[in-house]
Design goal:
The chain is mainly α. Helices cover about 55% and strands about 5% of the residues.
Amino acid sequence: MTMARHRVLGIGFGGVGLLEKRVDRVLGFSTATGPRWRKTALILGCAVAVVTSCSRGVPPLRDNPIHAERERKAKESAVIRSLSPKQVAELERTVAAKPDDLATRAKLLEFDAASGDYVLGKDKTVPARRAHILWLIANHPGHELAGSWGARIFPTDNDRDADPFGYAQAKALWLQTVKKPSVPTAVLANASTFFQVADKPLAEELLLRAQALEPDKKWSVRLGHLYYEVLMGSTASMPMGVIRSVNLADLGAHQNLTTCAPIELPTPGTAPWPVSRRWARHYHPRPRWAGGSLSVSIPG
């Protein structure tokens, strides 16, 4: 009995009988040649397969629906942000005639937040935003638009278009709304988003109420984000999770944190994902508010 062994690039092949002949033929060690008609048939068969495949053509690739939706929204946002004063006035007239046209109202809020100051000026943008936001809170507090970035009003100059007068009005409306019996969790979530910058204890209270009504991990994630902002001393909104303004006095209070397991907090300017996910899923610390100071106990 004979054994054929060959090693190519560190891979071993071996076999006897038909396998031996196959190995030798593939690796080119066999001197035997097959009938000419068999080779001719093989060549013709390959040629037919190639011609048939080419004649059918390649079907076009389908667009990724998620990517396509992102591109659509990006193009739509670009159009909204480049509106002229005349176009903005036309949209305002549309909303005045049809107050429940939330799609048009959303365009106006996006324009005001992104381009209002540059196109219309702050003196016109701030009261225009205020009117839309107050209307949303009073009429559709549970709609996703009421919890969007554009539906926030900021009381201090740490954020653009600060409007302390409008914030006080909106706060009164939100407090009146969340005190109603059988408040939906969507309303509590939107109210918490509104207060997340300026009144973090109230934002936490609203999230805990929503979590009690509808147990779900999404509330833990939201609480994780809130606690991250608290511990970093953030005093402004955080687009893309970036800390832009910090209260050093609050950061000093965080030196008194007691923990059974060492953790690394991110530095200002970084996204909140590492801390918020870890806390939301494993620790879920509960801050204790006392006279403006904060202490947190994290189980090990």
